[in-house]
Amino acid sequence: MMNNHFADIILPLAYKGLLTYSIPDEMKRSVHPGSRVLVQLGNRKLYSGIVNRIHDIPPAARNLRPLIRVLDAEPVVNEIQLKLWNWISEYYMCSAGEVMKAALPSDLCLEGVTELPVTEKYKPREESFVRLASAFTEDRLNAFLDSLSRAPVQLRLLTVYLDLSGYVPEALVKPVRKSLLLKEAGSAPGSIEGLVKKGILEIIEMETGRLAEYKTPAEPLKQLTGEQYAGLKELKNIFSDRETVLLHGVTSSGKTEIYIHLIDEQLKLGKQVLYLLPEIALTTQIIQRLQKHFGQVTGIYHSRFSNAERVEIWNRVGRQNGAKEYNLIIGARSALFLPFRNLGLIIVDEEHDGSYKQHDPAPRYNARDSAIVLAGFHKAKTVLGSASPSVETYNNAITGKYGLVELRERYGSVKLPVIILADTREAYRKKLMVSHFTPQLLEAIDGALANNEQVVLFQNRRGFSPYLECPECGWIPKCVQCAVSLTYHKGINRLVCHYCGYSSPIPAKCGNCGSPGLQTRGFGTEKIEDEIKIVFPSARVARMDQDTTRGKSSFERIIRALEEGQTDILIGTQMISKGLDIENLTVVGILNADNLLNYPDFRAHERSFQLMEQVSGRAGRRTKTGKVVIQTSDPGNRMIRLVLNHDYRNMFRIQMDERKAFNYPPYCRMIRISVKHHDRSLLNSYSDILARDLKAEFGKRILGPEFAPVSQVQLWYIKNILVKLEREKPAAQAKKYISGAIERLLREKGASALRIAVDVDPY
Ligand code: ADP
Ligand code: ZN
Ligand code: ZN
Question: How many domains does the chain have?
Fold first, then answer.
């Protein structure tokens, strides 16, 4: 009876160890690994933590504190999740508490409160929703609309409803929040009643979070083409003796259709599936495609949801409760942390995408790599999909660590887009540029608009112009907190720092020589939008970047306008490179390929190849062959030549050669230690101490300390030390040494004003 005395608790702290508490007798039955418990830390502060382990080993510390309370009837976190947290904290060198903070919806996390909350259990919120009374055909609906011609208020309500719900004839009947509908339509509640009486709309009470209700049976799966079917068969074949497969298929080859078949199989086996996407908000189209087949059991998880919604989804994934459970989760990287019961498959779509890596704050994890580990814990399989895989993944595939399945044809035998290089330097010299547009690009846009086709223009900088400059002395306004120039945003007429968010009014005169009239330099999406409107005054132009997509549904609105042909030209940052599948989109312009290629990073070339391939993949996906115009001042550039031929293989070979020559991953493991201090010279001396300690162990495998490319952010000066470890040796020991060296540094006099961040695989 006298066992299970102690519990090690994970608390939301950067502190690396776990704190041990004693378990009062009356709680012994209700405390399990994964239980959420309330504990006291310090004098008064209360925290909720997660039990990592229960044991009998008396801790060395005296005056051991007891657990105060067990917060839920059942553990919130299951054992596989705990295993994943512990793996991430060890591999990525952070505390389990930092993983917990990323993993748990914050409503499940109490931090440093001084009073017990009265009730902090989540109750699903019921709300009134409105939807069509039935999945009407288009004809039927048109008849309704006609019949309402003399009831303008009801007519307006119905059209606004159709718009908000994204009506698809005879398919989904998506409920819309009643309050939202009334607000958007600007009408009084009574007018909905009228439509309900006519049998057109109905009102339902629903828990928020359960937004996708489908009345019609799920759509049958599409029949695969010969190549797709062979690919699917091969994939399953490989799974019989391998855990991970790379599905390398050109854009629009039907990778998503193959995923859908795999998902269907797993769901029929009673397994759960996780479908990871790089940036969820951009992928409304994919969500709709999956919901058509798996509507009832599909949940979506990403950071734009409210906390209550996240808790709701968490519970639906974790608990077996029949009609309410989610078995297919589409999510961004944090969906990895949901309480899956029995995963059968993880799909990592666009596996090469940089946004799978969380850079700040800790845990600095890569969701693709962690997904493979998670799948292993569930004895599940992983499919990595991409049209231009990351160099590491492709290397793993051709060396046999992963299986490899390739799709070479686009669906419907549509040809890959034709790529046209436009030499900006020559065009400037010959005075053929119109604003920032080359004759080749203008001609392509002309042609598309004349045929009522659509155009996407890509520029990887937001704002109007990247900086202002004094024409007299060359002075450039800089951020007061960071070592970067401020970007000019015309819409709000301010200068904005893209690193820290600081903003200031436009200076009337130069801060150095006092002369008036600072000039704009370079161009961002906002400027392109302005100028394209001048060149094509009758075109309908929209812009998609961080500044135009702050609202939760703003992505959907922009994409829907494009789908419905209400936008002729869409301008955007890399946001537009993903997932867009628009039938009528035939021309893609890349406005400035130079600033992609010249980025100071060992992956810059790989990334620009992937980005250009991916953006190009948006053009001509159905019947017409698309056209891609790449504007560059360096048309002979080797990477651009490879894009021209869609030559992934050679891009891979060249990159591997370079990485071998300069010892970069996959030829080594990389760990980056960032040391920060408000005082520049103190930073210099402390980072030298650390580097010396590390060099004593690793010798020439230590590079730096060197100032970061942006050497100061939010008043913190930053220096980086890079560790390049041998691939063949286990990294655990080296990581231990690094942690030890950091602890030694922090014990130096005055070192407490340092901030140190460790990033494992910082790319
Ligand atoms: P990828 O994921 O490789 O970019 P998709 O799965 O999006 O390719 O396919 C491109 C387009 O072709 C989509 O609109 C998709 O619905 C369609 N498509 C692909 N395969 C089939 C198929 N076997 N039957 C019908 N449509 C298909
Ligand atoms: Zn000046
Ligand atoms: Zn700043």
Answer: 6
* Sign (positive or negative) of CA dihedral 321, 324, 327, 329: negative
Domain span at 492: 467-522
Ligand 1 nearest atom to the CA of residue 228, by list position: 23
Give the pLDDT score at 116. 55
Same-domain status, 99 and 137: no
Task: Quote the tokens at residue 439.
Answer: 């004759």
| Distance between first and last Cα of the chain | 51
Note the pLDDT of residue 119: 42
Strand partners, 438: none
Identify the residue whose C-alpha is closest to ligand 1 atom 5.
254
How close is the Cα of 484 to the center of ligand 3, in Å? Answer: 7
On whether both 603 and 682 belong to a single domain, the answer is: no
Q: Are residues 258 and 367 in the same domain?
A: yes
- Say if 1 falls within a structural domain: no
Nearest CA to ligand 1 atom 19: 254
Domain stops at, among 484, 500, 522? 522
Pocket-forming residues, ligand 1, beta carbon under 6 Å: 222-225, 228, 249, 251-257, 411, 581, 621
Give mean pLDDT in consecutive 10-residue pieces for the chain, a chain of 763 residues: 79 82 92 93 85 89 86 91 97 95 83 54 63 82 86 86 76 76 81 86 69 57 95 96 96 94 95 90 76 86 80 87 83 94 96 93 97 98 96 96 95 88 95 95 96 94 92 93 92 91 93 92 94 96 90 81 93 83 91 86 91 86 85 92 92 96 94 97 97 96 93 94 91 95 94 95 93
CA distances to 15, 83, 94, 328 from 80, rounded to whole Å, are 22, 5, 19, 18
The closest ligand to the CA of 249 turns out to be 1
**Which residue has its alpha carbon closest to ligand 1 atom 9?**
254
What is residue 706's predicted lDDT score, i.e. its pLDDT? 95
The CATH number covering residue 298 comes to 3.40.50.300
Instruction: Give CA–CA dist 697/701, Å, rounded.
Output: 9
Closest CA to 212 of 288, 264, 123, 304: 288
Question: Residue 711 burial (CB < 10 Å; 0-12/13-18/19+)?
Answer: middle
Residue nearest ligand 1's atom 26 by CA: 222
| Same domain (yes/no): 82, 16 | yes
Q: Measured from the CA of 412, which atom of ligand 1 is nearest?
A: 12
Both structure tokens of 549: 């997509």
User: What pLDDT does residue 617 have?
Assistant: 84
CA of 583, closest atom in ligand 1: 14
Give the CATH number for residue 87.
3.40.1440.60
CA of 544 to the centre of ligand 3 (A): 23
Residue 557 inside a domain? The answer is yes
**Which residue among 225, 232, 256 is best mutated to probe the pocket of ligand 1, counting the most ligand atoms within 8 A of its Cβ?**
256
| pLDDT at residue 223, rounded to an integer | 95
Asked whether residue 212 is assigned to any structural domain, the reply reads: no
Q: Which of 145, 172, 207 is the last residue of a domain?
A: 207
CA–centroid distance, residue 485 to ligand 2 (Å): 15
Domain co-membership, 587 together with 708: no
What is the spatial distance between Cα 423 and Cα 433, in angstroms, rounded to a whole number? 10
Nearest CA to ligand 1 atom 22: 224
pTM of the model: 0.84
